[in-house]
Amino acid sequence: MTKLIVGLGNPGSEHEHDRHNAGFWFVDALAKQLGTRFETEKRFQGKAAKARWESEDLWLLKPDTYMNLSGQAVGALCRFHKISPEDLLVVQDELDLKPGSARLKLGGGTGGHNGLKDIQAHLGTPNYWRLRIGIGHPRDLAGDGRAIDVADYVLRKPLLAEQKLIETSIQNSLDCLPLFLKGDPQAAMLNLHSKD
């Protein structure tokens, strides 16, 4: 069973609404749904929340390390609670999916995502679950040939229409999460991937 769900993002009010914080948005919504609250945990270098799911402990984590060092927080909590990579779900923003889309997968590459690169380095394996929340790519906006810097794009607030689509994909993902947590990732994937 999944024992840890990590939302990726950057700490601080100045980043709260950035596209890069879609992972934080997901775990915040999940914590609210589960009736639990995040508390600062210095030993895990982030904010952690503990909930019960089917009589098992389920940890939620928002690293305070900034995106590029997310593996420090994830590694610390996994080591302390003896959580294996296969029992980990990392929720991230995904440039290669349009807003409104979300995809669930086990393992694979990092797609240039620095948070995933650092987690993989700290865990020593790519074999953990990822929930990819689509935020779109800046090339989709620059129809006139202008280049939009990816770093600038992810560190900005989405347009209102994009935000609504991202919120829909987060809700769709939350709706499919019980299937995933009950140990049926294939059904969760089929359900989630059919929603966009």
UniProtKB/TrEMBL annotation:
The record marks 10 as: Discriminates between blocked and unblocked aminoacyl-tRNA. It catalyses: an N-acyl-L-alpha-aminoacyl-tRNA + H2O = an N-acyl-L-amino acid + a tRNA + H(+). GO terms for molecular function: peptidyl-tRNA hydrolase activity; tRNA binding. Its EC number is 3.1.1.29. Keywords: Cytoplasm, Hydrolase, RNA-binding, tRNA-binding. InterPro entries: Pept_tRNA_hydro, Pept_tRNA_hydro_CS, Pept_tRNA_hydro_sf. The record marks 93 as: Stabilizes the basic form of H active site to accept a proton. It is found in: Cytoplasm. PROSITE patterns: PEPT_TRNA_HYDROL_2 (PS01196). One of its GO terms (biological process) is protein quality control for misfolded or incompletely synthesized proteins. The active site is at residue 20. Its main location: cytoplasm. GO terms for cellular component: cytoplasm. The keyword tRNA-binding applies. Belongs to the PTH family. Catalyzes the release of premature peptidyl moieties from peptidyl-tRNA molecules trapped in stalled 50S ribosomal subunits, and thus maintains levels of free tRNAs and 50S ribosomes. Hydrolyzes ribosome-free peptidyl-tRNAs (with 1 or more amino acids incorporated), which drop off the ribosome during protein synthesis, or as a result of ribosome stalling. Monomer. This is Peptidyl-tRNA hydrolase. It comes from Polynucleobacter paneuropaeus. The lineage of its organism: Bacteria, Pseudomonadati, Pseudomonadota, Betaproteobacteria, Burkholderiales.
